[in-house]
Amino acid sequence: MTALAQVGAVNLLGLAGLNGLAGQALPVTCLGAALIALITAVAYRGVQLSAAVQTAMVAIQLVALAGFGVAALAGHRAATPSLAWLNPAGFHHSGSFAQAVLLCLFIYWGWDAALTVNEEARDRTRTPGRAAVLSTLILLSTYLFTAVAALSFAGTGTKGLGLGAARNSADVLAALAPAALGGALARVVQLAVALSAVAALLTCIVSTARPNVSVAVHGALPRVFARVHPRFRTPTVATVFTGVVSVVLLAGLSLAGPSFLGDAVLSIGLLVCAYYGATAFACAWHFRGELRRPGRALVVKVLLPLAGGLMMLAAFARSAVDMVHPGYGTTSIGGVGGVFLLGAGSIVLGLLVTALLRLRFRDFFRNGRRTITDLIVTEED
User: Fold this and answer.
1) How far apart are CA 170 and CA 57, in angstroms?
2) CB of 284 within 8 A of CB of 309?
3) Which of 116, 205, 227, 239 has the fewest CB atoms inside 10 Å of its own CB, making it the most exposed?
4) For residue range 333-368, what is the model confidence (pLDDT) as tens digits?
5) Which DSSP letter does residue 291 get?
């Protein structure tokens, strides 16, 4: 959320014509903190409001990307798309493949948020699962369409608009949109980029607060995290806590230097890879009883999650080795890359906190899977 707040703040300042402020840490940090506070308030007010706001922001993004893609493909300089661009065997070494896996995870991360609010869906037994599959298809088609359009329009050269140029790699849409759409419509694309960061902020806070309530209900977090608002029916302490921690981290990383925030973005892929992989292995272990009953359930609940977990593990290991190099990212400490330190350090910190929680909440770690120790606490008006 700290990295997303910075991305959203920088793009909103640029959209307002305040490019000078967009390059300064203090204005960006203040606006980023304001965005986190605003999104925290939206999430606090209820999942219906959050869904409506999210739908509006995603709709603007999809329209902007569709317009960019059509304009890029229709441009006089556009090359004819080729199936070779989609060849999965086109990687030259395993490092590139591992980076691609992390990029795919980073792209998908957040689009599974419907699963974290499954108990608040209208048809909780079918809607979340269908939403997860549908969001995957929408995301895949959107990114493929945009990527093919960008490749067709700009190519992979290292000069001019080429996607291989260093100045274009940080923000491809900002580099290509003016040439493809013109100045006025390019601002719509810039708005879409800003809204994508804000929408991801909302996804983060909604999908983080719900599991914290669940964990607290099962007795593995302080009971206060299980509080739910009586009217909005949303987590109160868990939502506000997530927002406050994000603002504190944003301020801390900003004081440490802008390079740390950039490396924080790069480290997210490693973190997502870790918890997606852990979830995949947990799924395979939970449904291990299907091994005695060959059929569709065995494939869907055990074999596919196990294969996904192994892929995550391989990508995590290779990426971690690459990130250790001090040249990976923009910071390093003691000859170790800052991206690795932020990613691996966050995981180690999480393990230490979990170890402390294990000592504090012994009942959960003995039988918490079978027993709910505390009911959800509904706050009074």
Assistant:
1) 22
2) yes
3) 116
4) 888 888 888 888 889 998 999 899 888 888 788 776
5) G
